[in-house]
Write a structure and sequence with these properties.
With 182 residues, the chain is α/β, with parallel strands linked by helices. It contains 5 helices and 12 strands. It has a 7-stranded mixed beta sheet. Strands 5-6-9 form a 3-stranded mixed beta sheet. The chain is globular, with a radius of gyration of 15 Å. It starts with a strand and ends in an 11-residue tail after the last strand. The structure holds glutamine. The site of glutamine has 11 residues, from α5. Glutamine binds next to α5.
């Protein structure tokens, strides 16, 4: 089986956890992305959770912001989790957008403070048709609204927690912090 080369943006945040999960998936070869060269080797990329303002600053410092946006608009599959979702959004309520590639508006820390972190279960048919997935939220954003080609995959507590738009997937929660490889 040919393995798919999946980069994990490795500037800050839950990088190791994603790389660990990828190491358990036979069809995937995960590796950290910190440079343009590493980005060019990636066939798909994960933007991890962390702190979105720090990530934005580091993306600029490492000169990755423009090349990453270009790869994504050229169709490279991308999955933004939590802070990664904020990086993808065209609109950040009361804040600055970064890559501005997904037709979503997000609210940072919307599900509450660190102490309010929680987990939930949901069936996300597009990811795992029958089994409920455990979803872990840590100072998570939610999506206020979607437009254009973005469509809602899952709502938790009446708020949008997962969105898909063509090659782009954004989730409020941290799949890398559960045992699921779905
Ligand atoms: N609260 C963080 C932010 O706004 C995101 C939290 C996370 O990625 N777990 O950037």
């Amino acid at each position: 089986m040919r393995t798919k080369k999946i980069g994990v943006l490795a500037l800050q945040g839950s990088v190791e956890e994603h790389l660990h999960t990828l190491s358990q998936i036979e069809a995937a070869e995960g590796f950290p992305v910190r440079t343009k060269e590493e980005l060019s080797r990636a066939e798909a990329i994960i933007l991890p959770g962390g702190e979105s303002t720090t990530l934005r600053k580091l993306l600029r410092e490492f000169e990755l912001e423009d090349p990453l946006r270009r790869r994504i608009t050229d169709g490279m599959p991308v999955w933004g989790t939590c802070a990664g979702m904020i990086l993808l959004a065209r609109e950040v309520e009361g804040g600055e957008s970064t890559l501005s590639v997904m037709d979503i508006s997000v609210r940072r820390n919307a599900y509450g403070r660190q102490s309010d972190s929680f987990s939930a279960e949901a069936v996300i048919p597009e990811v795992s048709p029958s089994d409920p997935l455990r979803l872990v939220f840590i100072r998570a954003p939610w999506v206020e609204r979607v437009w254009g080609d973005a469509h809602i995959l899952c709502e938790v507590g009446g708020h949008i927690a997962a969105v898909r738009q063509h090659n782009m997937l954004a989730t409020s929660f941290h799949p890398e912090l559960t045992n699921s490889t779905a």
